[in-house]
Amino acid sequence: MSASADTHYSCNGRPADPASLAAALVNYGHFTSLQVRASAVQGLDLHLERLRHGTQVLFGSALDGAQVQDWMMQALDAAGCVDASMRVSVFSRHFDFRDPLAAVPVDVLVAVSAPVELRQPRAVCSVRYQRELPALKHAGTFGLFQQRREAMAAGFDDALFLGPDDRVSEGTTWNLALHDGRALVWPQAAALRGTAEALLRQHWHGPQDVRPVPAVELDTAQAAFACNASGVWPLSAIDGRALPGSAALAEQGRAVLAQVPWQPLHRYCNQIR
User: Fold this and answer.
1) 223-228 and 107-113: which strand pairing?
2) pLDDT by residue (tens digit) across 102-152?
């Protein structure tokens, strides 16, 4: 998410000062991105667990999920909205790359901007690429955006990654589901397991598999959709091969998510819509 006049930042529950923002730009940290509607989030517990896990892996310290949730709600209130896109980043102003094992306190940066919902079909190309520490949603996004840029320069909308074993893994900022004519297939590979994927897998109606998907199976897939916390959208084509069934499959995915409860950010609110 790029900074703009409509983006509000807070750090540790207070308006972010220039020093906090400068420290957050160091390429060491992790984050989660989510959508907020009526001050509630789908899969809030998944996002908080992602942040806790990332903090333990990158900094060796614990993160207070309840405190982070309070800061998220404070940031939403400060922005004066109840519907928004939100990015929660964990970093440390005290991290020193010369002594990366030093125990340091972490900081939490919350960015609030206009809500989005991704629905537009996209044509993608497959490329051989794997993120560093693919299981973490870390701040090292340079490669992802460069792969997307190269795909768009070649006439596509985005890039789909193939691992070193020539198996399908994930998209630049999204997960992939294919339909092979029998079941929904989630590629099993070294990749970031997204919150939308987790919710869809939990609530999907009908057969589904989680298994390795060799690149050659892209030539026989019947349909495919991409998903992340910002929506579900059809892949209209992969490597120039049209997938006319993708629109219906994506609509099915959106219908599944529409039934998933939203968890309130306010910890003292007992209502879940």
Assistant:
1) unpaired
2) 989 999 999 999 999 999 999 999 999 999 999 999 999 999 999 999 999
The CA–CA distances, whole Å, from 242 to 194, 210, 236, 245, 260 equal: 25, 23, 6, 9, 30
Q: Do 83 and 139 have their domain in common? A: no
- 271 assigned to some structural domain: no
Instruction: Compute the distance between CA of residue 262 and CA of residue 273 in angstroms, rounded to an integer.
Output: 6
Provide the CATH number for the domain around residue 62. Answer: 3.30.470.10
CB-side neighbour CA atoms (13 Å) of 273: 10
Among 113, 142, 158, the domain boundary falls at 113
Strand, helix or coil at 90?
Answer: strand
How many domains, the chain? Answer: 2
Average pLDDT over the chain reads: 93
Domain of 211, in residue numbers: 122-258
Q: 3-state class of 107 per DSSP?
A: strand
Q: Are residue 164 and residue 51 in the same domain, yes or no?
A: no
CA–CA dist 73, 67 (Å, integer): 10
How many other CB atoms are found less than 10 A from the CB of residue 239?
14
Residues 128 and 109 grouped into a single domain: no
* 95 contact partners, CB below 8 Å, separation of at least 6: 26, 28, 59, 104
Residues of the chain with pLDDT under 50: 1-4, 270-273
